[in-house]
Write a structure and sequence with these properties.
The protein is an all-alpha fold. The chain is built from seven helices and no strands.
């Protein structure tokens, strides 16, 4: 990659970061750098680049590693979230639990409805509502599984409360 392309990619990331934290004045407050210097860092044609301390302060403020991600990409790397795998597995567990609860609700409603071998309009409506909830729950469960599959799966360390 040419040095011009590298320069423009980083300058673009710097501008995005400044915008994310609320503009030049806000970025100056956060980083303890003068607004005029932040303005130069925000200017696409100015050669001033953000020092690492400014990048760190601004990225910490907005929670988005804009410049760090750009630098990683320029080096052929990607950033990863160390908690993403754990969050994905927790999503599967929570959605699976929800599916089981919705299935149990449908079974309870259905069992009560057919106990007398006669399903009324009201009972059919209640069963249909529970079935729709189950259907939405299964959809969410499948989405949670897709996140795990997309990340390659693996084993997440889950801690049980009280351990």
């Amino acid at each position: 990659m040419s040095s011009d392309a590298w320069f423009h990619r980083i300058k673009s990331a710097q501008r995005d970061l400044i915008k994310l934290v609320g503009g030049i004045e806000r970025a100056a407050e956060i980083s303890s750098v003068s607004p005029s210097h932040i303005g130069r860092m925000n200017n696409a044609r100015d050669v001033d680049m953000m020092p690492l301390s400014v990048v760190y302060a601004l990225e910490s403020e907005c929670g988005v590693p804009v410049v760090t991600q750009a630098m990683a990409e320029l080096s052929g790397r990607r950033l990863s979230d160390p908690d993403a795998e754990l969050k994905a597995h927790i999503g599967v567990i929570a959605s699976y639990s929800g599916v089981l609860q919705k299935a149990a609700a449908l079974m309870a409603t259905g069992a009560a409805a057919i106990a007398d071998a006669n399903v009324t309009f009201t009972e059919a409506h209640a069963m249909d509502r529970d079935a729709a909830e189950l259907e939405r729950g299964i959809s969410g469960f499948r989405q949670a599984l897709a996140v795990v599959k997309a990340s390659g799966g693996g084993r997440a360390e889950l801690k049980v409360v009280g351990e």
